[in-house]
Amino acid sequence: MPPRPPSIPLVSQRSAWLGPALLVCLACGGCGSWSWGRRSAGPAGFGLGPSNRQDPALSGDGKVLATVVLRGGRDSLLLQEQPSGRELPLRQLRRFQPHRSPSLSWNGRYVAVLGQQGNRPIVLIEDRASGKLQRLPLPGDQAVERLSLAPDGRRLALEVVRQGQSRLELLDLSPLLEPDLPPGLLRSGGGPNPADRR
Question: Are both 32 and 62 inside the same structural domain?
Answer without folding.
Answer: no
